[in-house]
Amino acid sequence: MLEKPLPSNPIRMMASLLGFYLLPILLSIPVVAVLTVAFRRARRNGKVDAGRNRARGVWSHGYYCHRCGVAYWPYPTEPGIPYRVALAPSQFRWHVWNTGGYAKL
Asked: Do 47 and 104 form a contact (C-beta atoms < 8 A)?
């Protein structure tokens, strides 16, 4: 006595396969995106924390002239930092960030 196979609906089979395999993949995309952003932010914050003390040391020795609108260092603080030279605030900021190691973050 041979039993007949159950009649199968191809649309129902396709829907169940999509539900079992595609739905978890689609639901994991936002999780992967959030974790990627979190890891990138943590790596960036680690770079900033690593150079914070050197950058703070250079920044704290600089002066800003409100009348002239320039910043300068009166004496050498680090190698490569120009002293007794008037710098625009953006140049001053670049030197501080470059000393900290995060000028291109």
From this structure: no
User: Sign of the CA dihedral 50, 53, 56, 62?
Assistant: negative
Task: For 64, list phi and psi in degrees, rounded to 5.
Answer: -125, 125
Residue closest to 102 by CA, chosen among 41, 40, 51 = 51
Identify the CA nearest to 100 among candidates 68, 36, 37, 52: 52
Q: With beta carbons less than 8 A apart as the criterion, state whether 74 and 63 touch.
A: yes
Phi, psi of 71 (to 5 degrees): -120, 155
pLDDT in tens, 21-42: 888 888 899 999 999 999 999 9
CB 75 within 8 A of CB 54: no
Q: Which pLDDT tens digit goes with each residue over 51-89?
A: 999 999 999 999 999 999 999 999 999 888 999 999 999
